[in-house]
Fold each of these.
Amino acid sequence: MHTAHIDTFAADHLPPADQWPEFLLDAPGLQFPAQLNCATELLDSAIDRGWCDRVCIRAPGGLVWTYRDLQAHADRIAHVLVKDMGLVSGNRVLLRAPNNPMLAACWFAVIKAGGIAVATMPLLRAKELGAIIDKAQVSHALCDLSLAQELQQAAATHPVLQQLRFFHGQGVLGGVVTVGGPARLETDMARHNTPFANVPTAATDTCLLAFTSGTTGVPKATMHCHRDVMAVCNCWPTHVLRPKSDDVFLGSPPLAFTFGLGGLLLFPMSVGASTVLLEKASPPQLAEAIPAYGVTTLFTAPTSYRVLSAQGPALRQTALRQCVSAGEALPAATRAQWKLAFGIELIDGIGATELLHIFISADEAHARPGATGTVVPGYQAQVQDDQGREVPPGTVGRLAVKGPTGCRYLGDERQTSYVKNGWNLTGDAYLMDADGYFFYQARTDDMIVSAGYNVASPEVEEALMLHPAVAECAVIGVPDAERGQVITAFVVPQAGVEADEALVKTLQDFVKSSIAPYKYPRVIRFADTLPRTQTGKLQRFRLHDLI
């Protein structure tokens, strides 16, 4: 294997080649040279194209970084990693910060230096961080000072992590250094003010380890190489989003989530556009930032769009023109609510950490109610039965995908469950219609079998969401001696709605009137919130603990 990595841990822990998915790399824009560094392609090439003075990143407090500013920060940090922290190519570097400019600079610095970025969700605790450090054998870490405590606790019990530096999210501009605190990165950066010569990595060298967000309760580390990063920039954004250089991106997903990494950093930079990084991005903060920064392109989850719909009339007066939903299934009711409020179609999409980004989607002009979309050029998808055979249109089965990216777990026996016969099995139940549109049914482990009927949780959720008293809901099957499983709904009522037995009957009757009566939830429990990951994904497995 051609590689620039001196530390061969990642290469040594790839799954056996016969367990890999088939990679499709013949399409235009997906043929890459053997030597490739994605930081060179996305950041340094931007300077070569003359984009040096274009705005790249904006952040609260009036902070504005050009592409030249981002490169300068990334170069300084890369020097610190190599000269001060002893990084050799192939070392894993844990990144821990909310979405801010310095996290972006650290990500590019790690890639420039030939390291492997291991970005982590800001809300993780010491125990969870320790599991990541142990799994990836992380030796270096760059961490925002505001999140230092949990990482320091994890490092104390995981001696493999030897080198830590802490930073302030707004970085160093004009040579100004904020000193104080433990092992400040800015102090080291001040000593390095020369360009960094990027490590000539191989296109197939791993450059990031993305940990799954935990909807199944047991996160896995997915391995992605430089070629993967460039491939996703040349697929979904090119064919569906079609961004322009004057676009301004904004969103809620953390950069540690591949949906956020692509949507808020890689994709805007691939066309010379700019991004707004907010450390906190709740719906009210998004609503405030959209007019303040002239945002044109928004990335967030269906839950946020439901809340933002109330701001529809005000948002119509802004520059916002594209809204992307991913991270969980988009209910048709939410799509309709957003279009009524704001006047444009949501761009839906399904991706997976294992495949890095979106592979089924549709732009505004081709969106259909209830459908996720069609296959993104560069990928192939089909619906299969349990034996791996393609099923006819209109038949529910397992979604299987292949393309320029695919699943390679870091030392994980679940590789053979995710990849079969060259296909990535995403764990989603879908049906495809005669026109090639894919319709989400459920996670394959979310299908409820009650009294002999197969009931998809999202279908019941969709029916409940149409009732004005429901703010959020989630549906699971609970074991039952008589029926096999009982359809059980967890409902978050709208503010001011009384959660009582009368509401239970109202909702049950409402569901019976909108979908087949056998699908109604025989049990309804009320909750203040639903358990979700930091990326907004519902954690159904945790609902069973609430029974």
Note: The two ends are 51 Å apart (CA to CA).
Amino acid sequence: MELNVDHLIKIATELSITIKQVEATATLLDEGATVPFISRYRKEATGSLDEVQVAAVRDRLEQLRELDKRRESILKSIRDQEKLTPELEARIMAAETMAVLEDIYLPYKPKRRTRATIAREKGLEPLAQRLFEQESFDVTAEAANYISEEKEVKDAEEALAGARDIMAEWMNENAEARATMRQLFEKKGTFKSRVMMGKEEEGQKFKDYFEWEEPIEKAPSHRILAMRRGETEMVLLLSAQPDEEEALERLERMFVKGNNAAAQQVKLAAKDCYKRMLKLSMETEVRLTSKKRADEEAIRVFADNLRQLLLSSPLGQKTVLALDPGFRTGVKSVVLDKQGKLLHNETIYPHTGQHKESEAAQAVRYMVTRFEVEAIAIGNGTASRETEAFVKSLKLPASVQVLMVNESGASIYSASDVAREEFPDQDVTVRGAVSIGRRLMDPLAELVKIDPKSIGVGQYQHDVDQTALKHSLDDVVMSCVNAVGVEVNTASKQLLTYVSGLGPSLAQNIVEYRNQNGPFKTRTELKKVARLGDKAFEQAAGFLRIRDAKNPLDASAVHPESYPIVEQMAKDLGVTVQDLMQKDELRKQINLKNYVTDTVGLPTLQDIISELAKPGRDPRQTFEAFSFTEGINEMKDLREGMKLPGLVTNITAFGAFVDIGVHQDGLVHVSHLSDRFVTNPHDVVKVGQKVDVTVLEVDVPRKRISLSMKGDPAAARPSGGGGGKKAGATKREEEPANDFAAKLAMLKGKFK
């Protein structure tokens, strides 16, 4: 696709990078290169732009191209109407946003039959034109000239009413008037929500919004989405408008030029325009723009959470006994080998009587011994703490770790096509237990099989723009998968799908090739996979690992295109590539400047040396075991002031949810996250982080637990702050800059 120079200049200015960097990135993107590939293996071309910057260039380029497509469509429409003037064309070409473009097009847009259309058909446009000029004349006498039985204009007042309809439509279609009103709604508009009569009881979850108002401009994402949901569920009445008197005053200031009879007609038309057309139109717009802003924030929070969850510490390749707890239905038990393959499954009943408990104990001891189990994963749902207590009472070898695993989404996976394909002969309970065990071994590899919306780390994820949500979450999953790297001989089709340059079809072909021909022995063998051509190989190869390959570089993140460079380095030192990877003193002897070429610069060479030092290194943190407080299993066991360990399960704009082992997550409100002032919870905690909390309040009937992290050293890092208050403004939440989703949100903010 031909690059538009104006686009390149605009993006470079907005993102504070050079035009050359934008051009190189745009060219690579248009050639089919992925964000992870460009940021990792094309640093010389882009001037070392990172993933966030590359994604921002991609997204802005898409926006500008969409704007251009709409611009061309509008120009064609007006040209076909033979109404396109050089001045109008210049205005259309200069429009920088879709809203401005649509405002310009509005008078020329094919429309349904309106009151103004009917008035024109009655021949009243000349009267409207004369009134609009607002000169002094006998308005009633002039209007009487338009009385016509044939055109159904009965009297002067009806003629004036028709003329006002025409003038109101002119005002509504005036681009400057719309821009003024849009700004008023955005800057001075107020959200007002009220409970619908008779909905007080069933709408208790929206109680905070029964009598609520705050400025549209400052309303945080979670409150906008909550009010909109209350409206959708027909509990709340919601409006989004500025003061009506101020709106009318501004409109009149634009169109009313005097105080004569004609001006009075224009004033009446302005009032009608606002109440009948502009108010509705602008409220619709401001609701859409505030929803878009709320969506972006909610999606950013979700993306942050998902990234942290996907990059959770993996237990690694160990034989695991996974337990999906239940009381009456029993505990589903599966044994997985070090690669996650299902070896054995059975249901035990430790919670249905003494005899059954004894049988269950015997079964667990047998499975642990027979399969040499190294860890036991227990899902954190119903009966989890009771199952944990049961397992710990068995006095198993100290080497067997007993670990609680967040099972959110396991039931979704168990009923999915993916699970049916993997385990066609097993029922949903077995599949769910397998998911629990595998996500302990490798959260990333297992969670990519589940729709991210079902993992339980979002906020209003079903209310936001689903296309934008999917786009953002796909970005995060792809970023995580490629940052970690994928072992091509053990990866599932779902995991391979997210590897740069592959996708579902090639991922399936890789699995089929593997099944038919055995494990891949070299990266080059990937080229034998059906439809995996040179381009796909270039994009994917660096992110795929082959453990124990003949060429040790195949297990690293060094791209095959750079193998000759490494081989030359080894040759110059008189050693093997393996020696170079094993001995730091050899790598220190390399003068990188000797290997710089027209296409390979120091950034790539430095990456190569770093990778040789730790080939295929997993960027995720080392796994640490965690245990809840024994004896605290239900909400009724909690007391105010208790200090407990917990795991962060979800982060929202207003705080963090923490699992403390009582089947109900507690909320640490943003004001209790730290001894310091906190704006953004992500600056203080991460999903999966181990924290110490104090119980502030327990409301058993409403299933609400309030917690505090004040005094926890883990929460003592500096941060910003802010919170909302009833019927008032909230401090605007600052954007964090510590990860992919947050940085991308910041850059996107620059070109709104």
Note: The longest strand covers residues 643-652.
